[in-house]
Structures are given as C-alpha cells and as structure tokens.
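Review this today:
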Amino acid sequence: MEPLYNACEREQNSGLLFDPMDRDWEFPTVHEEAIRKADVLIEALGYFRKFHGKFTVIKLGGSVMESPESLRALLQDVVFMQTVGMRPVVVHGGGKAITQAMEKAGLEARFVLGRRYTDDATLNIVARVLAEEINADIVRHIVKFGGRAAGLHHKTTQCLFGERLTLPDGQGGQIDLGRVGDVTEVDAQTIENLCLGGVVPVLPSLAEEDDATLLNVNADTAAAAVARALKADKLVFLTDTAGILRDRNEPSSLLPSLTPDDCRALIREGVIDKGMIPKVEACLESLEAGVKKTHIIDGRLRHSLLVEIFTDTGIGTEIVLNEPAAGSNGAEARGHVAVKPI
C-alpha cells in the first residue's frame, strides 16, 4: 500500500492541492452521499441509546392501510426499530377493508355518532377481516422484511378485554351500538414477553368480554389502552394529515409541539375537531397514565415513523405534558409555540 505521505505528495503534484492537515479540505463529490448517510446515523445515535429497550405503541390506520407502498415503508420502519433495540407494538383497525367486505356480503355499514353499529353478522366480518386478513398480512410483511412478529387475537392469544359500550342519547337514555365495546383490561405480560424475545406484537382492535364473545373496539382507544398498560415511552398515531394544523388548508401551519392545555384550547376553538378529537383525547389520557410522549404524524409519507423518532426536527405533532426544557437535546428541544386564542 502506498504510504500516506507519498499519496499526499502525488495529489499535490497533480494539482488537487490535497493537504491532510487542512481541515477545510473536502472529499470528492463521489463520497458526499455516503458522508451524508453517516451524518444521519450520527444524529440518530443518541436516539438509539435513549429509546433502547423502551416500548413504542404504533396505531396503524388511515390511507396507509390502503397503500401497499406506504404500508411497506412503515413496516420496514417497525423492523428497523426492533433491530436497534426498541420494542415496537402495532395496533391496527380495519376501516375501509371492513366496509368493502360488508358490501360484498350485501350488508350496509351503519354508523351511530361516529361508531360502526355492530350486529352479529357485522361482527363476524369485522373479526375475519381484522384477524385473518389484515393482521396476518402485517405479520407476514414484518417477517418478510427480516423481523419477527406475532398476531395477538382470538385465534391465537387474546390480549385485549373489554365491556360493551353505549352512548348517551341526550334525553337520559342510552344508545345501543350492538357488539361495540371499550378496552378495560390488557394482558401486558404477554405483550412484554414477546417484545423481550425480539418479537413485534400485532394486535387488531378486537376485545373479548367475560363470556368470551368478541367486541368491536375503536383502534385509537385500543392503542391508547395498550400504551397505558405498558407504560410506553411513546404512542404514535399514523393519520392522513401532517399532524395538528392551525389551518387545515395550510400545511405550513403545523404545530410541532403541544401541551395538554394547548390541545384543550384548540378543541374549544374548533381547530381540533371531528376525527382528530378522539385521537387527541387518547393522547391526553395516555400522558396522564404515564406514557412519556405522544405523536400524531402523516403515515402516507415514506419512513415518517423513523423521521419523527430519530431526527431532531421530527415530522408531525408531538404532545407532551410540559413544554420541552430549554437546551435539551433532540426531539426534547423541538420548537414549542404557545397556542393563543384566534
């Protein structure tokens, strides 16, 4: 191998003026892409250390469920997280796939106050689509990308348990939603054991009553229940928006960091409304129960999960109990802007 001194002299003679002691000298452009990738890894190193061995619950939903490319990128992110020592847990619903399956069966979807009314025939379709189709497909893809995964549901090991849910009708009575429920108990030990064994638990939004009958539960509240039971470090909601926007028609109005007080003010103002309200409420309940941080991000963006967790700027909205401490590192230092009334 040519001595370094001779190589340096040769470069100088060729007119490249290479000086190994010159700190301003830059490598040729052929190396720039590799150096950029190394810089990204160095930025992520602190996050690898910080989140090693910590639980992150990921609620999978929205258009990412309908897009093979988005789903593939997301599950690659999950495998990456598991590979670097994090403990990801996936909770998912069914959404459009359930509606399509009902249409094929000649059943019309019926919603009551935003909840899918679930009779016995509907529940059979919901259970089949969630457990035997979507859940199995997610597990299969995680394994395909080099990870290990296990579906946890009534066909394997049931970990979500609940009770029937009714809604007030505004006149002192209750509205029956059929076989719809809320999660009241989570078998956290089974989920933890799988994570400790390097396996990604994948749970559909199905709970079991005391008599072993199934209940259709909201995937957002199911994910929050799992996060609370695990005392997870993070709860991440994948949605069809960039996060929480001050103006939904203006992507640049993204609010990168909010506190519970901020969120309640935005709900009162109508900035947070419709389907975003249950997600934000699930975030707030999780924070109160000990989850360290919650995130709402756009699942349609490729590798948005990794960008949110492993970069200094993030990509969506984080909700934390208190304002980030000044001078702290990484995501803790993400810019918090006090929410002022419109």
